[in-house]
Write a structure and sequence with these properties.
The chain is elongated. It has one domain (2-27, 41-143). It contains 6 helices and no strands. Helices cover 81% and strands 0% of the residues. It is mostly helical. It comes from Pseudohoeflea coraliihabitans. Keywords: Membrane, Transmembrane, Transmembrane helix.
Length: 144
């Protein structure tokens, strides 16, 4: 469990620190539904804990397909921030977040019958990434 929490939470915190929004992001036009900056830290901390627990559960149960999907979504998750905030590419970040959304949906589907708790742990993450996808799309359209 600790390994998966370290990967999800530690990796997320590291990437969030290295790719923190800066002046480029501040000057972007944002949609009315853009949350205040202080929301992101607590939400992501909570989500990374849930993601880590779900990863540990599927790994411990030797569920191969969900384990691969967990690794895929983690890679896509960690790729999004550098593309969006560091490379200043909301267009490419949008592609990545759509793939991330698909990976999360596939993970929920793959675990729904075999490990319902892991599927349920991913539902808040699914909701947040669906919202983040809409936000990414809106920022791309407003600034493209």
């Amino acid at each position: 469990m600790l390994v998966f929490l370290a990967i999800a939470l530690g990796g997320g915190l590291l990437i969030g620190t290295v790719t923190a929004p800066g002046p480029w992001y501040q000057q972007l036009e944002k949609p009315a539904f853009n949350p205040p900056a202080w929301v992101f830290g607590p939400v992501w901390t909570f989500l990374y804990v849930l993601i880590g627990i779900a990863g540990a559960r599927v790994w411990a149960r030797d569920l191969r397909s969900p384990s691969r999907l967990w690794l895929a979504q983690m890679g896509l998750n960690f790729l999004w921030s550098p593309l969006f905030f560091s490379a200043h590419r909301p267009d490419l970040a949008l592609l990545i977040i759509v793939l991330l959304l698909i990976a999360i949906v596939l993970f929920v589907g793959a675990t729904w019958r075999r490990d319902r708790a892991s599927a349920l742990l991913f539902l808040p993450y699914l909701a947040w990434i669906a919202f983040a996808t809409a936000l990414n799309f809106a920022i791309w359209r407003l600034n493209g």
